Amino acid sequence: MDRTVTKLPSTGRGVLVTGASRGIGRAVAAAFAQGGDRVAVHCSKAGPDAEATLAALEGQGHVLIAADLADPDGVEELAARAEEALGGVDILVNNAAVMVAHPLAHTSYEQWQQAWRQTVDVNLLGPAHLSHRVANRMIEAGREGRIVNIGSRGAFRGEPDHPAYGATKAALHALGQSLAVSLAPHGIAVASVAPGFVATERVAGRLEGPEGEAIRAQSPFGRVADPSEIAAAVLHLSSPQAMWSSGTVLDVNGASYLRT
Hints:
44% of the residues lie in helices and 14% in strands. The chain is α/β, with parallel strands linked by helices. α1 (23-34) crosses α9 (227-237), α3 (72-86) runs parallel beside α4 (109-141) and α4 runs parallel beside α6. The protein starts with 13 loop residues before the first strand and ends in an 8-residue tail after the last strand.
């Protein structure tokens, strides 16, 4: 390492979780809070879901911050506010994402461009910019840190109806590996989690509808993941013991897609 850094503690840390209003982000925020960490709950716009997440967190010192990840200035403000509110961000979880349907054969060129632009701005450039602003503050403060990206199984198996989603998640995995190398000398470990299908509010209709059985059958366990199972993987990769897992892309898909 370039200089001596403060070791990452196992609890009492400042954690910024993007897209924490519902689903995986909410579960991740809850898991960190339960372990004694202080959490900045990010949402694109403040509303009942984000406020419910904040209210349900155990412990003290949590904060709700609304910011547009597609706006570089908004990203800078998010990083600064989280740093101040938490007394330093030790862990960043890049979870926020959009998933806009745009199957090529049934999407106009104008709609295609719009879907790609929106998805790249939020799913890739947002995490890239936020990682820059948070990691630089870690480096300036001389403290170890963790960045965990929430990628997707779709980065490997394809997303025919959501190609921009699959592509940006693959790029997010690659971003994490590049940052794992560049930030290691500063004591910052970077890793990614690639979930399969997860039972969140966004996909409840699909799971309860005609395709629900087929979706559950993708895994030999005959079900989809609970958000808490993804949160458990994030907690591990954020722990002091996970430094040597930096650069990994951890599949959390219930053996629904295997790769070598």
